[in-house]
Amino acid sequence: MGVFVLKVHPRRTSAERAQHSPLLVRRPDHDIDLWVPFSWVRCLFSIFSLTLLITDIPRSGFGTINFEELYPTVAPNTVVNYGPYEYSVVRLSKNDSAQPVRASCDDEAMDLVPLWSYKYDTLSIPSRAMATHLNVSTYPRCVLYDGDCADDLAPDVAFTMLDDLVTSLKNNYFMAPAPRPPLEFFTQTNWIDRLHHIIYRWFDIVYLDLHTHHVHYYDITETQPVEMCQPFPRTSRRRLSARPKFCEFGIPWKMAHPLDLTASTRRRYDLHDHIAIRMALLRKAHPDLQFDLTVIFTHYTYTSAPKSTRTRVPLQAYFSAEDQEITTWIRGQHCDEHGAHCATVLFDDYRYERLYTENAADQLILLTAVLRGLAQFYMWLRVAFLWFGCFHARSEELKYRNVPFTKRFMVAWSTFFRIPAHVIIYGSWLPVLGYAVAHYIDCGLFHLLYYYMWSPSDGVAGLGFWEYVRALSVQMRNAWVLSMFVKLFVLFQGLMLQPRNGETTHLHGVLGIRGFVISTSSALSVFAQYRVPSFRDTNIMAMELLPQPAVGHHSRIARDLDMPTEFGFRYEVEILIASFSVVMTVAALWHLIVATKRCALRQRQSSLGVVFARSYYVPLSVQTLVPLTCMDVFWKTGRSQVETFSSELLSVLRHAKSSRRSRGSVMSTPRSVVSIGRLASMLTAFEHPDCRLCQQTKAAYWQQSQGCVPHEFILDVQARSPRVSSIIRLVNIALMSDPLELLHLSTGNYELFIVQLRRSATRVSRNPPSPYLPPLSLDAYAMYMTDSGRDTALVQSVRSCSLPWATLIECG
Q: How far apart are alpha carbons 756 and 759 in whole angstroms?
């Protein structure tokens, strides 16, 4: 291509326009079609990524998920999002002490008793705690996390350990006459259940849970029938303290009749009635046995902001989840006439569990909807303006000015898909900030929601395909949080670290993150809540036995256990760090494997980087007309790799370069010779003394992985090759078509300088040197004159708002 001119009309008064003619400013040679290769892989990836981007709101909604639409509502802003479940674990029986123990569940025979229910399930925590505290010798040590167990327990082992535990409880705490006060205690246990728990355990980070347990014991021979929640006179303080806490539930717990397995009837029974009915059925089936009932109630409340700190956590959606677990043990015994000696022949283990959540999502749903709506609308504008910018810029080129519209339309799309999708998605501040703040507000509710989606009652994860897609769509919103951190890092690195180390942005490039790292780390984070039974660890770390309760004492203790949840923004940061570390580790291993190959492949891998990479093609408009953070995502361009050439080709290049210099001008040559000339310019860049990155032998790994990146000296506008000018022009099109940047360029009144090389600094030519416009401020212009090493003269200063957009994308 030849040298063209652009007419620049700075804003002047009528008198000034009469005295001054338009300035002729040099436009560098460029050809995007020739020098920026089109990649079908990048095109297809961009189509997929941008489709997800522009359909974010239709796919995942504006704001917080409405829990009332997903779960049964039991009170205002309160739903039951886990359960309620009521199920039989096992029924153990034998005819007499000499007969083997038979196991069954819902009248179906079992050969073995599942170990999960007595070692890993959270409902097993109180029984293991009391077995340890009372030193029940028949309790298997492996069940208490002292050694390894098989996957199941023999029926006789389960029968003996449970029977001896109830006997120890009765003898130590429940020998007083009825009604007996409950036994209350705290437990602190490990909570290893999900994939992210396993990962953080490698770094000695262990999650702990704190539970309150209440144990009630009823001797059926003394209470006929079982009436745990019967009303007592207010003066009966002892009786009131003996009532189970679930009798005081503000939210009713209803269920079908124990014999109505299909729940075909509409009648529902309260929890205590359900226990009494089961007790009555067993007594009717075994009238010759004497029965006792042990009820263990476990209570645990976790909230996004405890009451003591709720005002210190601004703009976070509040929720409080209360986990309630009840284990009932009904024991049938053959006793002598005086009841002094009894032999247990029947043991029934039946459990209830549910979790209900109170949330205040409706208080912030409007704010999150506005933030996500504005961000989504901005992204629509971003994509539309970028395509129109590509169309407008390419239509201004001489070779496309007179071609049909359909041709220019296709060229615009071709140019559009030469721009990396991650630069479009994560380059702008406004949508990243909007999405990140909205995710900060309600991420805790989404974590809670998908935590229980990955928590079926059988202990195995089982999400459907569309549930997984929705979970992935919502969870991947944390990509905006990671992008925000990257922007802050680039801003700090550009404003603080580079000036301190004597580096400049345009010479040393902008250190950014590879686009795939953000999306891959975000996609991996959805598996943080992946659940496998072998992950589970609920080993008891501490136990505290509480004194006999006074009136209402146990209720006060339960209210004090208002523990902060692991879910929320802190959890989001933790899983992002974990997934980001996984991506970095895999990428580093891949890089290490590739580095063992031949030198050429190693150099190619080094130049592209692993996780962090430097974008060396940084327009001069960065930090002047557009912010530095627009370059936070690495822009992969096809840089020269002359180190892969053979020695014979290098000698040919050197000869071709010396021959062209001896002629003093570029002559008309065949196409093959032109290609040799193009490679010769690449060799010049490779040998350029300003490739200072090659001397950075002590750089950190994420810098060192780039290796010595051969690149043309980008600061000298006059010396740029057509390839560099083409890439810079494409980068400018992408950055300056951002809606906020367009507003900034049209209203900003920034002073720029038109400069011109003196005749002594140019080659001998009949034409005088043309002025050119580096978009630099006054300070940057002074630094530019020093670094370029050229004898330049200031022609005129202009205001950025007076220049057409097509001019600005040419001059940077």
A: 9
Q: What pLDDT is stored for residue 553 in this prediction?
A: 46
Q: What is the pLDDT of residue 14?
A: 45
- Looking at 202-264, list the stretches that DSSP marks H as alpha helix, in order from N- to C-terminal side: 237-242
104: its two tokens = 């069954």
Q: Where is 214: in which H helix or E strand? A: strand 208-219
Concatenate the DSSP letters of all residues of 384-432 into one string: HHHHHHHHHHHHTSGGGTTS-HHHHHHHHHHHHTTS-HHHHHHS-HHHH
For 718, the token pair is 């006059």
Nearest CA to 579 among 589, 591, 571? 571
Alpha helices in 73-175 (DSSP H): 116-119, 125-133, 155-173
| pLDDT interval class at 530 (50, 70, 90) | confident
Output the pTM of the full model.
0.78
Q: List pLDDT tens digits, range 115-140.
A: 999 999 999 999 999 999 999 999 99
On the question of pLDDT at 339 being above 90, the answer is no
Residue recorded with tokens 């195995």:
460
Q: pLDDT (tens digit, 9 = 90+) per residue, 318-329?
A: 888 888 999 999
- Residues in a beta bridge with 86: 352
Cβ atoms < 10 Å from Cβ of 557: 18
Q: Are 635 and 731 in contact (CB under 8 A)?
A: yes
Residues 6+ apart with CB under 8 A from 609: 514, 634, 702, 705, 706
Q: Give the alpha-carbon dihedral of 439, 441, 442, 443, to 10 degrees.
A: 50
**Amino acid, single-letter form, for residue 536:** R
User: Where along the chain do its domains lie?
Assistant: 67-365+530-564
Write down the number of H helices and E strands in the chain: 30, 21
Q: What angle do CA 663, 665, 668 make, to 5 degrees?
A: 95
Write out the two tokens for 741.
């940047």
Beta-bridged to residue 794, according to DSSP, are: 755
Distance between CA atoms of residues 659 and 665, nearest Å:
10
**Cα-Cα-Cα-Cα dihedral of 380, 386, 388, 392, to 10°?**
170
> What one-character DSSP code corresponds to residue 692?
G
Q: Give the pLDDT confidence score for residue 803 in this predicted structure.
A: 80
Q: Crossing angle of helices 365-395/739-747, nearest 10°? A: 70
Q: What is the tens place of the pLDDT at every residue in 396-428?
A: 888 898 899 999 999 999 999 999 999 999 989
The identity of residue 710, as a single letter, is: P
Name every residue whose Cβ is closer than 8 Å to that of residue 481 and which is 6 or more positions away in sequence. 436, 439, 440, 572, 573, 576
